[in-house]
Task: structure prediction
Amino acid sequence: MPIYNKYWNEQLETLPREELEELQLRNLKDELSHAYNHSPYYKRSFDEAGVKPADVKTLSDLSKFPTIDKKTQRDTQGVGSFLGELAAVPEKDVIFVSTSSGSTGVPTMSPFTKQDFDEFQDVESRWFWQAGMRPNDRYVHGLNFSLYVGGPDVIGAQNLGALCIWGGTLPSERLLFILKAYQPTCIWTSPSYAFYLGETALKSGIDPKKDLSINKIFVAGEMGGSIGATRQAIINIWGAELYDFYGLSDIFGACAAQCEYHDGLHIAEDHILVETIDLKTGEVIPNGERGELVYTTLRKKARPMIRFRTGDIGKFVTEKCPCGRTHGRIYVDGRKDDMFIVSAVNVYPSDIEFVIRGLEEVTNEYSVRIYEENFTCRYDVTVENAGASDCESDKKVSEIVTNALKARTGVKPARVIVLPDGSIERSTHKAKRVIDERKLSFDI
Result:
C-alpha cells in the first residue's frame, strides 16, 4: 500500500453511517444464527429468554437478548468440551487461544479460527496505520507473548510492512540496549512501563529524546493512555507521539485505538456492535451517555460474544471524527470493578491518577488502598515526595495532594501517606495500583 494513503481501508473506515449500520445488521443476523445453531450455551440461553435470531429486524432489537459477563465465561469454560459451552466451532477449527490475566477472577480462554485470527490481525494493521506507522518504520513489540491476546498483534505490524522486533517482556536494560542499538521508531507497551522505561533510560545516561529514535509510542493494558496528565508525563520524557489502544482478551487484541486527534478511541464497528447500558437497571441508554459498555461480536466464529458486559464504564459516540473516519469512538473512564463510593460520591482510580500525574510535588508513582471503617468506605493514597523528604515537606505535600483530590473527585482521602522518592516499587509492565481490602458490598 502506498505510504501516502491516509487510511488502511478507506472504503471501510469512511463508510457512511447508514451503510455501516446496514453492514452491522447483516453481520449481526449471521452471528446470532451461528451462535444459536452451534453454541450449546447460546441455544439454551436464547430459548430460556424466548428469543430467536430471526427476531432481529433492526440493531436495537439486540436489546431483547440476554447479556453475558466474565462469570458466564468462567462457568461455561471446559463444560462439555475443552473449549466450553460458549464455543461455536469444534476444536479442530481453532488455531490459536489466548487467556485473560485473571485479574478479576479465574483466567478465561479465548479461541480463534484461522478466519478470526487473520481478521483480528487486519484490524491491528488498521490501527497501526491509523497511528502513522508505515512500512519504513522499525517497531519493537514490548508486550507479553505468554498467552496474552496482545502478543500476536505484532503480526499486524508485520503485515503492514514494518520491520518488527519481537521484544516481549524483556528486562529494561536489555530493551534499552535494543532501542539504542537498533534505533526503532515505534514501540508498544503499557503506560506504566513506558514511563518507567523512560525514567530508567535517563538514570542510565540515555536521553530518549536525543539518543533514541522513538517517535511513536502505543500503550494499552491499563488506564493512562487517555489520561491527560499521564500522557503528557510520558511525552515529556520521550518527545514522541502517544496513542492509546484498547483491547479485550474476550474478543481480540486492540479493538479500538486513537487517531491523530486523540479524541476518544475509534472502535472496529465492522467487528463489534457497541451498546451502553445503565449501571443500575441494565437498560440500554442513548449513545453519548455514560454507562457500562456492552459489546457484541459481528464476525467471530470460534466463540461469539453476544451482549458481553465488559465492566468498563464510559460512553460511545457516533459523530464523524475530524480524521474522516465514521466508526464510532469510545471514551473509557475506568472499570466498574475498580470504582468505589465514598460519602455517596463515585470515585475512579483514573481521576486519582490524573491528579497525581499533574502535581510537581510528587513523583508519578502512587498506590490506593480502599477499606472499610465503621461500615463506611474509605481510601488512602500513598505518594512519593519529589523533593527532599522530611516531616515538614511531607506534611505540605500531603495537604497539596489532599486538596487536589478533593477538588477533582469531590471527596477527600482518609489519609495521604508521603514517602521518599523510590519507596514505591516500580512496575515493569502492567501496574496494580489499587488494593481493595473491603469485605462489604458497596453497590454502584
